[in-house]
């Protein structure tokens, strides 16, 4: 028998088609009898090149390799065979692109180019819906409830969605047929909502899923068109299993092995860049489409990162990383180069829209760094989020604002020493499934804020609040104040005295009364409650003082009191 040759081979999907799937790398003469079959892992794929120039690809496990090579030799009646191992190139990273990154055909082209600038990477791509599509779908659904079946086709937001996607498909010059059927289905769904005159949370999730289902199909078709082999996936079809909490599904553990198996098996079978819908899952009991909460594509990306044990998770946004505050509140916000998972989670939970509140969990569990980058400005270094970082010189990292918060002051009707008072109060919140954000307690009274995102619609807010107060008044005197805001100071709480000293000086200078203060157990967050209408001014003043008036870390080695007291040196710009 003639010698077979093993050729080292890289099958990176970034190599543009029409490459036949392999490069002409040097060949090593080797007899099939001398292949170390035991060392081969199952299943692998080999390209068998026959001496006459033809070739065939077979997926074989290590143990079948020998017989497959022999069978090919017999079949082809040739003794000149070269066996090329298709190298198992593992996925290296996940890249998530948010709605603003894929808002138009132009943006999709730029994202494709951006992906191609990393030829050394084998990424899994996660996409959100295009631009404002999710909001438009929700608005369309709400209008459908009351517009009547005959008017459902005329809903303005439906026209906006159709127009955007059809224009994008046209500009990218891809076949529109598959998208047309999706848009028709969407119209049918809106008619169904109009007929039923109701939009349940389950239907709402199904409705918004059209956004990600469309964007990923369009982008995958475009990549294939430009010669980058890509495969579209609906997350709810590949193992993203969630609780059945529609609009706010929680990823279940079974997701990780299922997603890893599906993506990896397909890759081994036929390598192609996976393009996965962000934000979506499948309820484990109902089997219906669920969503992971607004901004949930970040969580899709970190879940895939953990499932595949990737080297890095990248989330591409429209800002130069996580910034010192929301740039829409104060435009002189600057990027924060390093964050810990704890800081990022706290920042997200307390309202920084830049990251989904739950998204850090899989990354932290998998110990996978998360990089936040700007798709409009890829050269900017962005923010890298890791388990630990050098905090010795860190005082404050970022200032976060959460608006529209309701505050409750609850004082026990009994005087001192009432055992179990706090437990009773919290059991009421548990029974009513209302989430509490910030708490400050004493033995017989407490103040707390309620998470506004848990109170879905206007009508429900009032009903739920009335119910809470009614229940609490059985054991306490309750004072409810609406229109509050939480300002969270994310940083190194080891230096809490310095942070508080400075923050209170700033707020005192502005004549602001802080209504409640709480230092989180996470050791990275101090929260202050102020009136909503004063909050933006507070963030701006705090930002100027903490980030624009010299290096705060220098104060860490100065004497705290006497002539050198940092307070005496503070300046607040108004
Ligand atoms: N601390 C912060 N740093 C950066 N961006 C922030 C911050 N707080 C709020 N944002 C807002 O988050 C937006 C980016 O998040 P998002 O819109 O969810 O991105 P995408 O849709 O691209 O995933 C920014 O445009 C910015 O307005
Ligand atoms: N499209 C969904 C999910 C998402 O993550 O979007 P984005 O990445 O644009 O925040 C939303 O608007 O909530």
UniProtKB/TrEMBL annotation:
Gene3D superfamilies: 3.30.70.260, Acetylglutamate kinase-like, Aspartokinase, catalytic domain. It catalyses: L-aspartate + ATP = 4-phospho-L-aspartate + ADP. Pfam families: AA_kinase (PF00696), ACT_9 (PF22468). One of its GO terms (cellular component) is chloroplast stroma. GO terms for molecular function: aspartate kinase activity; ATP binding. Residues 1-28 are annotated as: Disordered. Residues 410-488 form the ACT domain. PROSITE patterns: ACT, ASPARTOKINASE. The keyword Transit peptide applies. NCBIfam families: asp_kinases. This is aspartate kinase. It comes from Microthlaspi erraticum.
């Amino acid at each position: 028998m003639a010698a077979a040759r093993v050729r080292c081979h890289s099958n990176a999907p970034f190599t543009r088609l029409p490459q036949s799937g392999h490069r002409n790398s040097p060949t090593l003469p080797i007899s099939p009898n001398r292949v170390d079959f035991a060392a081969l892992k199952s299943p692998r794929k080999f390209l068998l090149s026959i001496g006459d120039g033809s070739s065939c690809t077979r997926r074989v496990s290590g143990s079948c390799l020998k017989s497959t090579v022999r069978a090919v030799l017999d079949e082809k009646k040739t003794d000149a065979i070269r066996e090329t191992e298709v190298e198992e190139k593992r996925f290296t990273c996940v890249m998530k692109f948010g709605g603003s990154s894929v808002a138009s055909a132009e943006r999709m082209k730029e994202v494709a180019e951006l992906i191609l600038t990393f030829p050394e990477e084998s990424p899994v791509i996660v996409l959100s819906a295009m631009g404002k599509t999710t909001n438009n779908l929700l608005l369309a659904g709400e209008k459908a409830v009351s517009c009547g079946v005959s008017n459902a086709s005329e809903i303005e937001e439906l026209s906006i969605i159709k127009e955007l996607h059809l224009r994008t498909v046209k500009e990218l010059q891809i076949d529109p047929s598959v998208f047309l059927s999706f848009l028709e289905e969407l119209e049918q769904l809106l008619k169904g909502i109009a007929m039923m005159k109701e939009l349940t949370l389950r239907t709402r999730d199904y409705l918004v899923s059209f956004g990600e289902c469309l964007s990923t199909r369009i982008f995958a078709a475009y990549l294939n068109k430009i010669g980058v082999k890509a495969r579209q996936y609906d997350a709810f079809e590949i193992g993203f299993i969630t609780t059945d909490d529609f609009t706010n599904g929680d990823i279940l553990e079974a997701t990780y092995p299922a997603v890893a198996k599906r993506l990896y098996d397909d890759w081994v079978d036929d390598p192609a860049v996976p393009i996965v819908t962000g934000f979506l899952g499948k309820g484990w009991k109902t089997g219906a489409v669920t969503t992971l909460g607004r901004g949930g594509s970040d969580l899709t990306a970190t879940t895939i990162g953990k499932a595949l044990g990737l080297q890095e998770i990248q989330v591409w946004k429209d800002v130069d990383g996580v910034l010192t505050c929301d740039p829409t509140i104060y435009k002189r916000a600057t990027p924060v180069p390093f964050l810990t998972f704890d800081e990022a989670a706290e920042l997200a939970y307390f309202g920084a829209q830049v990251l989904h509140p739950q998204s850090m969990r899989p990354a932290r569990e998998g110990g996978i760094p998360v990089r936040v980058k700007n798709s409009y400005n890829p050269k900017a270094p962005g923010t890298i989020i890791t388990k630990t970082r050098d905090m010795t010189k860190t005082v404050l990292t970022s200032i976060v604002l959460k608006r529209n918060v309701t505050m409750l002051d609850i004082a026990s009707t009994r005087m001192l020493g009432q055992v179990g008072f706090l437990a009773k109060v919290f059991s009421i919140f548990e029974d009513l499934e209302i989430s509490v954000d910030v708490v400050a307690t004493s033995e017989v009274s407490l103040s707390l804020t309620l998470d506004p995102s848990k109170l879905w619609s206007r009508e429900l807010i009032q009903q739920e609040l009335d119910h809470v107060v009614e229940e609490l008044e059985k054991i306490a005197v309750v004072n409810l104040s609406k229109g509050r805001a939480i300002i969270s100071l994310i940083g190194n709480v080891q230096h809490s005295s310095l942070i508080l000293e400075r923050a209170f000086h700033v707020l005192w200078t502005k004549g602001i009364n802080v209504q409640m203060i709480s230092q989180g157990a996470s050791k990275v967050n101090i929260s202050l409650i102020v009136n909503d209408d004063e909050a933006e001014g507070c963030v701006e003043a705090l930002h100027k003082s903490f980030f624009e008036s010299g290096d705060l870390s220098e104060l860490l080695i100065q004497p705290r009191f006497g002539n050198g007291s940092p307070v005496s040196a503070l300046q607040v710009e108004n």
